[in-house]
Write a structure and sequence with these properties.
The protein contains two helices and no strands. It has helices at about 5-15, 20-65.
Length: about 80
């Protein structure tokens, strides 16, 4: 089938399709928005929990042994 024949068939196919009702389009868009917002909220909560865990770990490390009180081992001759 040549290019013109294929384009003519595509045009006939597109003309035979009924338009999607506005209500159905709104339902699809609203569903997408609701699901995306839920995903972003769950992701945000997960990030907050992980950052809180890192914060607690860092706070515990610095309270139990402040960084300036640690021996400086990377400078030669400090042992």
């Amino acid at each position: 089938m040549d290019e013109e024949g294929r384009k003519a068939e595509e045009l006939k196919f597109e003309e035979s399709l009924a338009p999607v009702p506005d209500q159905k389009t709104l339902v699809l868009v609203n569903t997408f928005i609701i699901q995306t917002a839920g995903l972003l909220n769950r992701f945000s909560a997960l990030c907050e929990r992980k950052l809180e865990a890192v914060n607690r770990y860092c706070f515990a490390e610095f309270v139990t042994e402040p960084p300036l009180a640690r021996p400086i081992l990377h400078i030669s001759g400090t042992r």
